[in-house]
Amino acid sequence: MITLGVKLPFLDRAEAGRLLAKELPRHNIPAESVVLALPRGGLPVGFEVAKELELPLDVIVVRKLGVPWHQELAMGAIAGSVQVLDTNMIRQLGISREEVDEEVVREQAELRRRETLYRSGRAATTATNLTAILVDDGLATGSTMLAALRHVHTLKPAKVIVAVPVGSAEACALMRLEADRVVCLATPSPFVAVGKWYQEFEQLTDGEVQSILARTYRRGPGPGVAGGTERLSDLR
Q: Cis bond leading into 56, ω under 30°?
């Protein structure tokens, strides 16, 4: 399913973010909201959403848990103290509890490293009593977004909205079980992978994430990127 006459593939994450920002106001987004992007790929999308809607922007760091002998294949994800495990995959592949625990410990260390690096001593933006808009560049299995969603629920937001430019129908259905609302511009089938639906899908570096967040935070206590004129290309 494709909404808004969206033409796929998107040019890049910035274009996808601007299109997503045009759709979100139809869903009665309150002024008391915050955009929480999943780095690295979700941050350029979230940047455009936050700027267009004049909302604060921050990150929710999530780490995929890779199958020990095939790291690109996800068997779950972690965010904060939350773990999401694909128990069916773990059982079918014969992955031991010890192997799962080792992967969790390794990725928790990387999660802490990125939190420290990205925030540079700044406190996380509060989501308490606000509408939290969780943004990523797409949903394939949905495991990383599900971990982020469950983690954000522990922060006591008023509502949680999952917003992505593109996703598999299965992942979007999974999000609807736990989010207050899911906004997805397109659910093409067969889905294959998120990167298939972007002409440009380069991986961001930690430095680029820091640059976007530093520019955002320098705007002071007001809305995160409100009133700015920068696009992602200006931050590189």
A: no
Q: Mind listing the pLDDT tens digit of every residue in the chain (236 residues)?
A: 445 568 999 999 999 999 999 999 999 999 999 999 999 999 999 999 999 999 999 999 999 999 999 998 899 999 999 999 999 999 999 999 999 999 999 999 999 999 999 988 888 889 999 999 999 999 999 999 999 999 999 999 999 999 999 999 999 999 999 999 999 999 999 999 999 999 999 999 999 999 999 878 665 444 444 333 333 444 44
Of 99, 118, 137, the one marking the end of a domain is 118
The parent domain of residue 177 ranges over 13-61+125-220
Other C-beta atoms lying within 10 Å of the C-beta of residue 187? 19
Split into its structural domains, the chain has a count of 2
Reduced to 3 states (helix: H, G, I; strand: E, B; else coil), residue 126 is: coil
- Count Cβ atoms below 10 Å from residue 218 Cβ, excluding itself: 7
Q: Are residues 134 and 212 in the same domain?
A: yes
Side chain identity at 83, as an amino acid letter?
Answer: Q
Please state, in angstroms and rounded to a whole number, the distance separating the CA atoms of residues 43 and 131: 18
Report which DSSP code applies to 113.
Answer: H
DSSP helix, strand, coil percent of the chain (3-state; round to 5): 40, 20, 40
Residues 6+ apart with CB under 8 A from 130: 32, 33, 34, 157, 158
Q: Where are the alpha helices (DSSP H) in the chain?
A: 13-23, 42-53, 87-93, 97-119, 143-153, 169-176, 206-217, 232-235
Cβ proximity of 179 and 151 under 8 Å: no
Position 195: which residue type? G
